[in-house]
Amino acid sequence: RDQNNKATSVVQSARQKALGITQGIWKHSHAGKKPRQSHVKANGKLFDLSKGMLIDGEHIMPGELPNCRCTWEAVIPGLSKQD
């Protein structure tokens, strides 16, 4: 499951960037017994798909770290609440 989350994150990011989507909103999964507090705090925050979210001193994508089940919501220009 862990490697599948990483692969899904990479493919999803590439597809969205190819469509002109440049930002996402971090979505914490609220799964697991011991959630990373930094991921909980990132929930709902905007980040750049080309960099990832700055968490614990490094830029990461949701689902990238071992056992991370976080994901993101694409910010679609002209259609998203952030516009």
TrEMBL record:
Protein origin, superkingdom: Bacteria
Protein name: Phage head morphogenesis protein
